[in-house]
Amino acid sequence: MNIARKGPGTGARPPRARLHSSAPRQSLNGTWRFRLSRGLAVAPEDGWNTGDAAWTEGDDWTGITVPAHWVLEGHGKPAYTNTRFPFPIDPPNPPDENPIGDYRLTFDAGATFTDGAVLRFDGIESAAEVWLNGELLGETRGSRLTHEFDVTGRLRENGNLLAVRVAQFSDASYLEDQDMWWMPGIFRDVELVATPAGGIWDVFTVTDYEAADGTGTVDLFVEASSAVRLRIPELDVDLDATDGGVIGVGVVEPWSAENPRLYTATLEAENETVTLELGFRRIEVRDSVLLVNGEPIQFRGVNRHEHDPLRGRVASPERMRQDLLLMKQHNVNAVRTSHYPPHPDLLALTDELGLYVVLECDLETHGFEEIGWRLNPSADPQWRDAYLDRMQRTVHRDKNHASVVIWSLGNEAGTGTNLEAMAAWTRAFDPSRLIHYEGDWSSTYVDVYSRMYASFEEVRSIGEEIASPAPFDATAAQLHRRSLPFMQCEYAHAMGNGPGGLQEYQELFDQYPRLAGGFVWEWIEHGLGSDGVYSYGGDFGEDVHDSNFVIDGLVGPDREVRPGLVALAHWYSPARITVLDDAVRIENRYAFADLGGLTFTWTAISAQDGELDSGELKTGPVAAGEVVVVPFPDELAALELPEIVTVEARLAHDTAWAGAGHVVGRGERVWLNQAEEPVEAVAPADDSFDAVSLRLRSLGGLRLDGPEVGIWRAPTDNDRYPGWDERDLPPYAERWHVAGLDRTRTRVVSSAWGEDALRVTTRTAPAGRDFSVDGEFVWRRVADKALTVEVTLTPIGTWPVEWARLGLDFVIDAAPRELSWLGRGPGPSYPDLAAGGFTGRHTVAAGELYTPHVKPQESGARAGVREASVVTDGGTLRVTVLSADTPDGSVAVTVSPWSRKVLSTTAHHHELEADGRTHLSVDLFQSGVGTATCGPGVLPRYRLAARPGRVTLLLEEV
Ligand code: GAL
């Protein structure tokens, strides 16, 4: 086995489309025999693959599931690196320590396949040599690419031996350095597929839609060994298609992500019938704007890797459907298959459910960046055939899917002529789709200008650029790039608590027609494990790894919806709703559909009495892109002072991805007033306060301690990285630590018991520092178990860094049970991450107080809060905001079973140990979260420079 050469695989038939065909197939998935060796040099040549009947297996063989990664089946371990190769950069040589898996399967095929057949492998990582009955069929390269070997005349009816030797690392590994787990094995389906005489080998349907007259065409190419008939019953097409060519089908309903209309077609040859789902649509670029069916569209996209926490990149129909349904339910309309072709069945689902697909080739050479891109295969002509082979396998397999609108050459493979060659081949073969590649910013051979994690300013300037004339000395390449629409193939890095900044990007996408939207990085957190116990890089003893950088997603490893996805659904909503004083403004953000598919309902809420009334809001017809302002209906206008008016857009009918009533958009207006201050007040009893700290120790029967002034948070992933806009500074987590936000101490400066109040002044400062926050606390007893505290906080000295928050921390001596509040919810919110949903009364149980981030960090703040009841095993504390000098008079409340210290020092969620107490923070201000793990940090307007604050709280045991 030669796994140190620069070429593509050998021996396979030319790539072709994945067809839904009547030709018999036989799955060879199941339990195979397996043996692992440490390296190629010691992999036994003992006749295991010869088909010799006398050969018997030794005790180094076991059973293994196919498809599976052997490292998840008890043989060796997974390993995670982001960009670094886990072996020396010495292309095309893999390391000597290179696990080699030998697979054997004996099977009967019967008479079905004697006429002609191929043996199909949909994915083997990273290189394999394949023998059937002792005969070498060839080698595979391209872990996520299909290889079909002709077994006609080689297959027996009974007792076939299929033997596959798989190398974990090979020359191919240099082209497959995606940011993900290294997980070898036969991890996609293996099948025997009949290729009957009088059958169809390949089909290419290039569909088109002419918006001007509503007609469709299909340009057909068929490779068959008999005459072929095309039928599209719904369009009355029934004709001889043996020679292919352009076929007009008359007026059709076009395909789009909004209305994924498909027409079933059949191609009937003598001995085989192929069924196709045709979608008529056109994707094009005009005046730097991306158009589908003649209308500008925006990608409201996500990047999707294939991942299952137990099975790795082994995809199942259930997971695929689950992912796509969740995307559609959260207003996502596009998916980039980062960074390789997905399981082939995914595309039938994107066609059916309606998602634009950027289909990416299995290519990334990112590790060469570490050595300044020296030796990069992209620029080495000896690798050219390998590059072309990868692209051809990518395009051929999925070329019949309407949802695929862009071919992507790969990801982060630097620059070089091999990429240009891929683009040239693709353009010649399939001019109906656009070509994407981000890694070469010159963009000379692509059809979209693409970048990842570009800052807000840069995205704006790219949007604006085309409004002014090109510079007189612009080169041809620059002029070409100006003619292209712009997309962010990756933005808003959804790692840990985040991503912040979705709103600002969306506003830019909405403002400039050249900006075709983007794809959030990324969909799934790649934790390995189950039931909340997930591993990341380093957990398998890897000496080279990138820790929890593999845990970045809008959904958790088991598809738990993270707050970032809730926020994204809001910004990606097709209906933007703004509740005005006496009317509702609704913007239709569909590219094609009117608002007839949605119903709008209003709800009027009073803080004390709950829902007052609700009803339907009639919008009348609103075409795509239009805005209407609908006056409040009479019933709503007649209501006296509702404190909250919410308007929701819901699906009017069942769809393939959600039932009628599913909420796709929401807007609200809040007129809440401050709660009334109690009038009667006396000084509180001194036995409720700690003699040293003068903090409250009891309230009625509640044992507690607080408040302490709090300005730190348990660093989020984003706090632990410097934003791309300030890479010369250490990350916030470090700056906070240096300044000492995580180790403040409080001294009582003065205290005085008056008749009506206890007055305490304090100084809170980091150990070893002289800047502080001075506090004044005025305590009054207003009822038996009720106190008010009037708090004034003032920063003193020069704080060298912004704060994480400014708030009051309490610890209740009993475990949390539940939190009820009046404010935004039910999810958490941070200033630049509006995942909170809507304003009202919400209740969450103890287990929903926080987000179970695989790596613990700050989470769970509920914002816009006016009143909160913290239910614990030891009683309930109700906190009411009587006044606050915050923009809307509300505070943020965070309740956690863990202290911030514990959160910041524990590696995995499942290792967190609760201390049986309730950690409560009432924050006047919070810093945003940003996306510094990849991209811009917290925008200046969401940062929290040292500042004063005032709040008056009513604390009651209830
Ligand atoms: C990008 C890359 C992704 C991922 C991301 C960070 O540069 O394309 O694959 O690594 O950074 O999570």
UniProtKB/TrEMBL annotation:
Catalysis performed (reactions): Hydrolysis of terminal non-reducing beta-D-galactose residues in beta-D-galactosides
InterPro entries the record matches: B-gal_small/dom_5 (IPR004199), Bact_Beta-galactosidase (IPR050347), Beta-gal/glucu_dom_sf (IPR036156), Gal_mutarotase_sf_dom (IPR011013), Galactose-bd-like_sf (IPR008979), GH (IPR017853), GH-type_carb-bd (IPR014718), Glyco_hydro_2 (IPR006101)
Enzyme Commission number(s): 3.2.1.23
Keywords: Glycosidase, Hydrolase
Top-level EC class as recorded in UniProt: hydrolase
Tagged with keyword Hydrolase: yes
Pfam families the UniProt entry points to: Bgal_small_N, Glyco_hydro_2_C, Glyco_hydro_2_N, LacZ_4
Residue intervals of the Beta galactosidase small chain/ domain: 682-956
Location of the region described as Disordered in the Swiss-Prot/TrEMBL record: 1-24
Classification via SUPFAM superfamilies: (Trans)glycosidases, beta-Galactosidase/glucuronidase domain, Galactose mutarotase-like, Galactose-binding domain-like
Family: Belongs to the glycosyl hydrolase 2 family.
Protein name, as recorded: Beta-galactosidase
Origin species: Kineosporia corallincola
